[in-house]
Amino acid sequence: MFASAAPIVLVIAVAAAVVTLYLMRPSPRRLSVSSTLIWRRVLRSRRRTPDRLRWWLSLLLALLIAVAISVSLSWRHLFAPVASSGRLVLVLDNSITLSTLTSDGRTRWEHALERARELIRAGGEGGRYMVADTGREIASPRFEEADAALATLQRLRVQASRAEMFPGVLETSGSDLHAVFITDGVGPVTPPPEVETVSVFQPAENAGITAFEVRALPADPRRYQAYVEITNASRRAREADLSISGAGHLSITRRITIAAEGRVGEVFDVSIFAGGPLRATVSMGADALAVDDTAFSYLPHRRVLKVGVVSPGNVVLERALRLLPRVEVVSMPPSRYREGADVDAWVFDRYAPRRAPALP
Q1: Residue 6: is its pLDDT beyond 70?
Q2: 161-177 burial by CB neighbour count: b if 16+ within 10 A, else e?
Q3: 151-175 pLDDT, tens per residue?
């Protein structure tokens, strides 16, 4: 079903204009010649059939070109998917990958909004429209008039959510409607089979951090390493700068090369940083998606904890405590226990002081 008659009228008008131009014949020019003998011979030998055939072929070719241009300019309005009842459900994928820049400098999200507006405007003022999103930013989607639906689109935003899913709006809206899902196809959202999918995907140059983890070395619990994984979504190998920064030291930067549509894992010794947050950043020229260029992790503080063990003697307990990383054991018999000793925590074994200490 055509959403509007205006594009059809445009195509018919263009075709009629081309035919009219071909039927128009310029007035013959009158010239004086010295002799008509040569022209009479030309007229006797002229064949009209090939000329007429070329005229028809030229007209047909001109019509095809004109109609093709007209349809290309108005195809979105000509074939806009509007249900026969005038009820249209628009579901937009607002996952974070829609923030990717496209070749024209706009994001995929801007293209998705533009496509949704075109569908609403093509449906006309008399239609009813429901706008929903995969991130559930619209808590209770409902059918609205065209102006209200356009205002709802204006409020939608791209959001970083791990719980994207196709909203269950079709089960509660009846069967007499048409549903369109506008997406870039990158996320895991799968629409029902009766839903029409409109893609706004364009290939883009992008490198992002897909893993960032800090762990202590098994051989030396006081030293830490950071593992960073970078994925290249481009269709060609790219070079990028990978940096780790934190408190207490200058950042560490490493130049890496990532294969086309590949990934690289890098290991950094982060023991030089003080405890606290660590930030990993990847920098690549012409990166279309900036939100995945930064990741954070946490480096535990390496302060040694003094633990006072008050016991008449327990070798097993003391040995177990000394196996813990960043723990210094200070053992003493009950007779030497003093509450103000320079320790961070107390462990009492088969002994109970008269008053509970202020420290844990």
Answers
A1: no
A2: eeebebbebbeebeeeb
A3: 999 999 998 776 788 998 887 766 6
For the chain, the three-class secondary structure string (H helix, E strand, C coil) is CCCCCHHHHHHHHHHHHHHHHHHCCCCCCCCCCCCCHHHHHHHHHCCHHHHHHHHHHHHHHHHHHHHHHHHHHHHHHHCCCCCCCCEEEEEECCCHHHHCECCCCCEHHHHHHHHHHHHHHHHCCCCEEEEEECCCCCCCCCEECHHHHHHHHHHCCCCCCCCCCCCCCCCCCCCCCEEEEEECCCCCCCCCCCCEEEECCCCCCCEEEEEEEEEECCCCCCCEEEEEEEEECCCCCEEEEEEEEECCEEEEEEEEEECCCCEEEEEEECCCCCCEEEEEEEECCCCCCCCCCEEEEEECCCCCEEEEEECCCCHHHHHHHHCCCCEEEEEECHHHCCCCCCCCEEEECCCCCCCCCCCC
pLDDT confidence band for 133 (50 / 70 / 90): very high
Condensed to tens digits (0 to 9), the pLDDT of residues 206-239 reads 999 999 999 988 887 778 999 999 999 988 999 9
Give the integer Cα–Cα distance in Å for 272 and 112: 46
pLDDT at 197: 94
Comparing CA positions, the residue from 150, 82, 139 lying closest to residue 116 is 150
Residues 6+ apart with CB under 8 A from 341: 308, 330, 332
Q: Would you mind telling me the total number of residues written for the chain in this entry?
A: 360
Q: What is the pTM of this model?
A: 0.61
